[in-house]
Amino acid sequence: MKFNLKGNKSMIRLTDGTKVWLNVNSQLEYGEHFNKGNTREVSLKGEGYFEVFPNAKKPFIVHASDIAVKVLGTAFNLKSYAGEPTIETTVIHGKVGINKQGAEESLILRPNQRAVFKKDTKATNVEQVAAENIAEWKEDRLVFEETPISEVLSKIEAYYNVKIRLKKGDKLDCTLTGEIGQEGIEEIFKLLEATYAIRYRISGRNIYVDDYFCKN
Prior knowledge:
Blueprint: E1 2-3, E2 10-13, E3 19-22, E4 27-30, E5 40-51, E6 60-64, E7 67-71, E8 75-80, E9 86-93, E10 96-100, E11 107-109, E12 113-118, E13 124-128, H1 131-134, E14 142-148, H2 149-160, E15 163-166, E16 175-180, H3 185-196, E17 199-203, E18 206-211
Parallel strand pairs: 5-6, 15-18
Antiparallel strand pairs: 1-4, 2-3, 3-5, 4-5, 5-8, 6-7, 7-10, 8-9, 9-12, 10-11, 12-13, 14-16, 17-18
């Protein structure tokens, strides 16, 4: 088992040659005899980027909450955080099959496709994306394309290991397109202040957002 705390990322090379990059606050579980049976199976909590070593005789299966992702050899990103309402699977190259619990047929994903599984309704939507941007977090970059600010702030929290506190009942309804690289947290919020008229205070690892332009 490998577990990353907030603010830490890591790369794991499994015994079959597969490489896994774990994002912050993520956990990968695998057995001692992971590569000795007819399949190669792991469990993910959080977010991981997988470069699966090809082996047609031993499918690679990732279990994530209510779904299982089955591959032979490919690269894909899987995000399955416990506190988020969806599980997202994005294929960079190759293809994967996704099985929901109790389903016999697999949903096949190909490059630049993302499947978004909704935990409450058990429905899955497939959309076209720029897959190369999805896993930029493993290169210490976050790339956003018309991403809701609420999701942006959630990723900033994990990336910088901070807690962002909004006024009770407030919701952000605007989106952000841009990239975060090596900037510090103060620089990020100065940019948000200039773009969305956000008013904020930083106290230790807490960031209090007092007002902003884009709210319901």
